[in-house]
Amino acid sequence: MTIKEAAVRSIQQLPEDATWEDVQERINFVAGVRKGLRELDEGQGLSHEQMREELRGTPATSTKEPSGSFPAESQESLHGFP
């Protein structure tokens, strides 16, 4: 599926009374999910332990910057987005 096809499909799932802001939010969400999944595929995500440490305020030992990736359980439901 092309990016354009994914965008159209995603927009078609919005309610009929969707606003331009709704469309923009949906596109930004899908783009963010795709970026996060790509980063995970490239090994750029944080482990659960690294994220726990970061949330506690103790920097995790890592040479990589946080990627904003989604946890594995979220990925399964989002794989419909290319």
In short:
The protein has 82 residues and is an all-alpha fold. It is 59% helix and 0% strand. It is built from four helices and no strands.
Describe this structure in words.
- This protein has one domain (about 5-10, about 25-80).
- It is about 60% helix and about 0% strand.
- The protein contains four helices and no strands.
- It has helices at about 5-10, 20-40, 50-55, 70-80.
- The longest helix has 22 residues, at about 20-40.
Q: Give the strand tally.
A: 0
Largest sheet: none
Mean pLDDT value: 79
Low confidence ranges? 72-79
Class by helix and strand content?
A: mainly alpha
Please, how many domains? 1
Strand percentage lies at under 5%
Helix content: 55-70%
Radius of gyration, in Å, reads 15 Å
Number of helices: 4
Q: Please trace the helix and strand order, writing H or E for each element.
A: HHHH
N→C terminal distance: 7 Å
Shape: elongated
